[in-house]
Design goal:
- Chain C: Keywords: Cell membrane, Membrane, NAD, Quinone, Translocase, Transmembrane, Transmembrane helix, Transport.
- Chain C: Its EC number is 7.1.1.-.
- Chain C: GO terms for molecular function: NADH dehydrogenase (quinone) (non-electrogenic) activity; NADH dehydrogenase (ubiquinone) activity; quinone binding.
- The complex is a heterotrimer of chains A (358), B (176) and C (465).
- Chain B is mostly helical and 176 residues long.
- Helix content of chain B is 72%, strand content 0%.
- In chain B, helix 1 (3-24) runs antiparallel to helix 2 (28-49).
- Chain C is an all-alpha fold.
- The radius of gyration of chain C is 21 Å and the shape is globular.
- The chains are: A mainly alpha (358), B mainly alpha (176), C mainly alpha (465).
- The B-C interface holds B 105, 108-109, 112, 141, 143-145, 148-149, 152-153, 155-156, 158-160, 162-163, 165-167, 169, 171-172, 175-176 and C 8, 11-12, 15, 54-57, 59-60, 92-94, 97-98, 100-101, 104, 107, 111, 119-120, 123-124, 126-127, 130-131, 133-134, 137-138, 140, 192-194, 197.
Amino acid sequence: MLSIENITHSIDVWLYGTFNPTAALLLESLIVGLCAITLFAVLGLVLVLMERKVSAYMQIRLGPNRVGPGGALQTVADTLKLAMKEGLTPDGADKFLFNLAPFMVIVVAMLILVPVAFAKGTQIWDINIGVLYISAVSSLSVIGILMAGWASNNKYSLLGAMRSGAQIVSYELSAGLSIISIVTLTGSLRISDIIDSQQDGWWLFKGHIPAMISFVIFIIAVTAETNRAPFDLAEAESELTAGFHTEYSGMKFALFFLAEYVNIFIVCAIAATLFLGGWMPLHIGHWTAFNHAMDYIPSSLWFIGKTFFLIFVIMWFRWTFPRLRIDQLLSLEWKYLLPLSLFNLLLMTLISIKGWHF
Amino acid sequence: MNASAVVFYILSAFILATGLLAVTSRKIFRTAIWLLFSLTGVAGLYFWLGMQFIAAVQVVVYVGGIVVLIIFSIFLTQQSGKDLPSPLRRRTVFSALAACIGFALTCLLLSRYSSFRVKESDYDFAPDMSISAIGNQLLSTSEHGYVLPFEVISILLLAAMIGCIVIAMKSKPGDK
Amino acid sequence: MNAILLSAVWGIVMMFSGIFTTSKTAIRNVAVVGLVLLVLGNYADMIGYHLMTVNVHKMLYFDTFGLLGNLIAFGSTLLYVLLSGRDMEKVGHHLAEYFALIFFVLCGVAIVTTFNTLLMLFLGIEIISIPLYILTGADKRNLKSNEASLKYFLMGAFSTGLMLLGIAFLYGATQTGTFFIDDLWSGKTAVTPLFMAGLLLLLVSMAFKVSAAPFHFWTPDVYDGAPTVFTSFMATIVKVSIFVGFIRLFDEAFGDSQEKWQVFVAIIAAATLFIGNVTAVFQQSVKRMLAYSSIAQAGFMLLALLALNGVAKEGIILYAAAYSIATIGIFAVLIRMKDYTFEGFNGLARQQPVLAATCTIFLLSLAGIPLTGGFFAKYYMLSSVVATGHYLWLVIFAVLCAAVSVYYYFRVIQAMYFKDGDGATEAEPGLGFKGLLVVLAVIVVVLGVWPQSLLGQLSRLIYTW
């Protein structure tokens, strides 16, 4: 059967058979890098189009529909426009940091991609600290935003960056605790172990109510971490023009924009991995026939389907909830979500010790 | 020189260069950013050693925690964009002297222990560095378990947390 | 172990008591009950009764010296809370939290006095320090208090860094990689430059924590800026407990390389005695004078570290008791005063004869006048150094410094008795307060008149256990 796993494996065998190990490793790194960059570009194009189409659907209108069939090439045109725009650097800005910030944000997004399992056996590095690595590296993304806000030498940018920083640092706690509550069930941080443990059902269903609570908390927390509405205080246009990227234009702005969408994809992929089994098809306990039938759908489709479903949910939020005020946002985290996730973690630990999960 | 050694030298050069920039930069925000890169480089070194857990902790604690804290405090101070006044010559001399002494001490130690090599047989007893082994050791009540310090640290953190709240809590209006 | 468990649990109890009641008297009573329990629990530990069996795997070692140190710390805290607990309410609104922090400090004290690995020493010192940073800044509206807190925090963090570096060096020096202080003994670890670097860094950081010169610069500002109630706590209980840990560390870990580091301690002790005593002479505020006097007293306690013999260990226990009780007493009176300068004490004897009389006894004890506990404490310190046969110059120097100290202690007595003025307290002190002061004064005198009986007990305990 043709699957991504077989393709990657045969490429690997061929490379190591033809070149010496060092060269083969370098070539593999190169291929992986190219794939990641391509993925980024494709994701950017698809997600921006999806955002606009979903928004249009929510507002009962058509959305972009002139460029290409049904407006499908709209984002390509937008990208061309952005690429040809002049990249301004404001006077009085710290030019070095100003130009470094967008790259920092993009590099961090790329680093988080490392342990994500896209399909069965398709993972860049199955690192043994898997989810810990993800939460560690994602804490880096705040630096790029703070850097951008400060280097712009603009009040709005600075305020936006500070809000964003406070928000990301706070909501990281809840996201981390939700991840830990799944880790107590799997007993491993490795992504492949987490997916394997969901062979007979996804944790969302196997883990009873605590798993559902932590799923909801995780989704809320990552919505805030990616600065999406209703938590888009950092770039609240009515208050702060455009937040930390007010001063950016052209390709540098495009990089921020791209990083934002890639981050959404990544957090949704992680949520899908932890709670919905990643590439694992929908299996139910010991219904062997049903499980086999499900296995016929390729694992990569499962992964992409789950991830895009979650992305759709997050886009849905944007048109459903009103924006919070900054103090409401912080008290939501510190006074409600954090105690709730701590208590939930305790409950989950009890369940996993007693073996009450399925 | 194999690829591993090349990676090591690249990482070390990165750490040293950014560290040097962090000390010599005249803009305080840039200093924080250089420090960030230096600390990330150290995390890279841990990855290179195969100590993934320590690397992740390095990133979480230093980069995600401490540098963000530093940046926030820079934001809250006035005139963070101005160049820092250049340090006194006397102070520069003394700090250079201190750095030299530290360097000399390190060299002395290295020369003393340069014959000290990990024997092949030691690898058998090398501790298991996987995260579950670390976790078990940390909470183990057996001979080399660290559950007592772990609990003591929890008291320490509780005390610190109460302290933070006492400092941050607003007094009720109308009082004193 | 009883003490560590009880103090940690009672810290949490205090924290919750703030939620369940707003009555300050109730909160204070809960704290007093906790302290009584602590004293009893620690005594129970000494006679061999343990609340629960915890196998600490030699990370802690409960010997008599450490447990006696605990007993003195907890006993003095009890007296301190009984005397000055009421004044803590004036500092801020978070009374329950202040008590919780004090209990956590005591937990740290119990660890520092009984540690057996450098890891536990570090944790204990940190548990002591962090609540103290907060207590120093408890008076949030007072800029001086804020400044003191920040200064203390920054300097404290710096010295903690030095301590960690020292511990890391020693960890490397053992070659086998261990934190146990028994393994630093010379049979197991060679005295290499790495070892000496670690030792010196530990010496510096501990000297910093007990505010010995030349690492004392934070002390006057912090003691002066902190709310007076908490200055009293920091200058007495915390300081002597860290001293117990200090002596424990150098006795158990570095005892056999003594001749290598003795000279450093001698220099530090001489500097501390000189700076503490001479600077105290020039102070105008009694509170600041007491801060310098606490540096000077630390100089005397360093003599025990220098000698590290049986006399020194007995003596430091006696010194801890005499110094803590006398200083707590003086601070309790000082807190009640309107004016903290020397002039503020003018004519206090006429207004408040009991306060003035007890204060005189405390000051005499601090100055080391015979018939008070302070005399024998100082005598033991000096004789311990004489017993080593070296450093006679330091003994003579210490006696001279003690003579200088008489000047500034007597200045307060002179102000109280021989100067006219309206030295007045803020409110008329209650009968209980006066009674307790008298009890403290009696303890100080008993320590001075019959130290033999107490020391006999002590030496029997130390040598037989």
